[in-house]
From TrEMBL:
Superkingdom of origin organism: Eukaryota
Organism name: Elliptochloris bilobata
Domain Metallo-beta-lactamase as annotated: residue spans: 2-207
Name of the protein in its database record: Metallo-beta-lactamase domain-containing protein
SUPFAM superfamilies hit by this protein: Metallo-hydrolase/oxidoreductase
Length: 227
């Protein structure tokens, strides 16, 4: 989660991804978000990509926070937005690793893909830009709230999913890298090179615990995959 002040100085919450498809995990996520939202309203959920382990609690979040907007890249929207029967299937997208191919096949048979509400979904476009430039998916209305320009930027890193994005919180130098890097497992996808071009101070992979990764450590990990 990011705490972001608006032009009036009020603090707002931006949540990145919606957790794994697990009832206990979703309940815990909701408790934490509700506690934070008591003092800093949850304005946005930014989906780095629509794989089930990143949108497991989407339906519950949409229900619990009716004013929450949803942001994702336009290349990810066909797999997540609108009625499930009309969604594209991730099984048609080439996988970037064998392990994920197996997991994806298992999860798709076991669990339904969530449905992001088109009326509250706003899309990023292009290979990079400012989250403040998100535009409406199906209506002329714009989000009720967006981060001030220059605070939160995105970089499309599509190696793992067509519209996967990494997010850079510029005031803190915090980079959320989605599934580009799994540092604790010593894994880095091809898009990791792109992350090194960003002015971050600490990187937080989606599936790693701990205190994050500094640029020098990421540089060494990326170099090891080129040897």
């Amino acid at each position: 989660m990011f705490d972001i002040a608006d032009e009036f100085g009020a603090t707002n919450t931006v949540l990145v991804d919606a957790g794994v498809p697990d009832s206990k995990g979703t309940a815990n996520l909701l408790r934490q978000v509700k506690a934070v939202a008591e003092t800093a309203p949850l304005r946005l959920l930014i989906v780095t990509h629509g794989h089930l382990d990143h949108v497991g609690g989407l339906a519950e979040l949409q229900s619990a926070f009716p004013e929450m907007g949803i942001i994702m890249h336009s290349n990810e929207a066909p797999y997540l937005v609108g009625p499930r029967k009309q969604q594209a299937k991730y099984s048609s997208v080439p996988s970037d690793n064998a392990a994920y191919t197996i997991v994806r096949s298992f999860l798709q048979k076991l669990l339904p893909q969530p449905e992001a509400d088109p009326a509250r979904t706003f899309l990023l476009s292009g290979d990079s830009g400012d989250v403040a430039d998100a535009r409406a998916n199906v209506t002329a209305a714009q989000p009720a709230w967006l981060p001030p320009r220059g605070v939160l930027s995105f970089l499309r890193v599509p190696g793992h999913s067509p519209g996967q994005v990494a997010l850079l919180h510029k005031p803190s130098g915090t980079l959320v890298s989605a599934d580009v890097v799994m540092y604790g497992r010593g894994l880095a996808h091809l898009d990791a090179d792109k992350l090194l071009e960003l002015p971050f101070e600490r990187l937080f992979p989606s599936h790693d615990d701990g205190t994050g990764v500094v640029p020098g450590a990421l540089r060494k990990l990326v170099a090891s995959f080129k040897q």
